[in-house]
């Protein structure tokens, strides 16, 4: 048995950024002593952590669905890892666990704050952070509960190659009478979306994007991961009683100025239902969503990609790539779920 680790490297919030992108001063990496385990606690070696657009909102000192990350606190992030030591009856060494592990090499805390996970047949351990994680839950409940998708809908999805959008797009494609338009920002993303079977794939960076979008016709269901100008354009071409799923607003998270929406009166004139939501509110129904997604995966109806930042050969962990991954995601260079591999060791399972 390897000796128990004594030190922990971690990334903490050093300075709150002003409106706009993070800076080199936003985070810092530090090393601290690991505390002795107390009764009921476990030590987890972090293997992968999640990188999500909403993290940019967590470091703002504003009201949100979660409290802001405090200065000097480990950057909040979902993660998976393996139990290294346990003083809990609920978890044993080697268990695969999921929790808010943060950007750090090791996590210490009460076992009750973690979930033991078993990877479904045909899945991968990283799917607990993507397909079967918050991304999958967000796509599922956004499409079914908020969007109320039905056969025959003309569906538009922005951020369609992202962690949530990629799943939401394929949920829509499972309805044979739906017309699905996927919006993304690169030729490679559009090609991947075409291969999935999308009826229209549009690059929002094209000069004639507004004209291309208009050709899609009146929209019944818009799954919005972006906000900003694309939302404004879609509002101008919705059907009466359309549904807009307000899932994300990545265009605004990193913007240095507020982004105006001019077509909001359409919500009234077209009797449109636009609703925001947080997947955490549906936690009691996660098994329902995971069963659906696992079934679609086994049937070959669901494909999912990950953009994974690996540790460099000279580093003992991937911690140094966390901020790089966050910055890259806001440049739109990721496909599917963005993860950072913290541990240099291969995961089992």
Structure commentary:
The chain has 10 helices and 15 strands. The strands form 3 sheets. Strands 3, 4, 5, 6, 7, 14 and 15 form a 7-stranded mixed β-sheet that branches. Strands 10-9-8-11-12-13 form a 6-stranded parallel β-sheet, with helices on both faces. A two-stranded antiparallel ribbon has the order 1-2. The model has no long low-confidence stretch (mean pLDDT 94). Helix 2 (134-146) crosses helix 3 (165-173) and helix 2 (134-146) packs across helix 9. The chain has helices spanning 55-58, 134-146, 165-173, 187-196, 209-215, 228-235, 250-253, 266-269, 286-298, 322-330; strands at residues 7-13, 27-33, 41-51, 79-86, 96-99, 106-110, 115-116, 154-157, 179-184, 200-203, 219-224, 238-246, 273-276, 306-309, 337-341. With 349 residues, it is an alpha/beta fold.
> What structural class is derived from the secondary structure elements?
alpha/beta
**Overall geometry:** globular
Most strands sheet? 7 strands, mixed
- Helix residue percentage: 10-25%
> Mean pLDDT score, rounded?
94
Low-confidence stretches: none
Rounded Rg: 21 Å
| Cα separation of the termini | 20 Å
> Quaternary state, please?
single chain
Sketch the topology as an H/E string, one letter per element: EEEHEEEEHEHEHEHEHEHHEHEHE
Number of helices: 10
Beta content comes to 15-25%
């Amino acid at each position: 048995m390897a000796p128990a680790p004594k030190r922990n490297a971690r990334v903490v919030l050093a300075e709150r950024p002003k409106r706009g992108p993070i800076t080199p001063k936003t985070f810092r990496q530090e090393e601290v002593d690991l505390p002795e385990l107390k009764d009921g606690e476990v030590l987890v070696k972090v293997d992968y952590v999640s990188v999500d657009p909403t993290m940019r909102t967590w470091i703002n000192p504003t009201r949100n669905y979660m409290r802001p990350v405090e200065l000097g606190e480990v950057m909040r992030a979902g993660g998976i890892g393996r139990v290294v030591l346990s003083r809990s009856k609920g978890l044993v060494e080697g268990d695969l666990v999921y929790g808010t592990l943060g950007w750090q090499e090791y996590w210490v805390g009460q076992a009750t704050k973690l979930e033991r996970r078993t990877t479904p047949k045909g899945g991968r351990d990283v799917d607990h952070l993507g397909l079967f994680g918050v991304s999958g839950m967000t796509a599922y409940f956004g499409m079914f509960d908020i969007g109320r998708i039905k056969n025959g809908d003309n569906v538009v999805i922005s951020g369609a190659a992202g962690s949530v959008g990629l799943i939401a797009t394929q949920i829509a494609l499972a309805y044979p009478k739906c017309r699905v338009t996927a919006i993304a920002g690169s030729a490679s993303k559009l090609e991947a979306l075409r291969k999935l079977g999308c009826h229209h794939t549009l690059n929002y960076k094209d000069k004639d994007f507004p004209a291309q979008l208009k050709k899609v016709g009146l929209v019944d269901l818009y799954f919005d991961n972006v906000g900003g100008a694309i939302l404004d354009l879609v509002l101008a071409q919705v059907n009466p009683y359309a549904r807009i799923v307000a899932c994300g607003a990545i265009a605004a998270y990193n913007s240095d100025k507020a982004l105006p929406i001019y077509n909001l009166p359409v919500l009234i004139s077209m009797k449109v239902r636009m609703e925001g939501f947080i997947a955490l509110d549906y936690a009691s129904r996660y098994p329902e969503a995971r069963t659906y997604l696992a079934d679609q995966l086994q049937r070959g109806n669901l494909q999912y990609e990950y953009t994974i930042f690996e540790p460099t050969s000279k580093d003992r962990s991937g911690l140094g790539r966390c901020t790089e991954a966050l910055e890259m995601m806001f440049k739109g260079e990721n496909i599917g779920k963005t993860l950072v591999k913290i541990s240099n060791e291969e995961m089992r399972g």
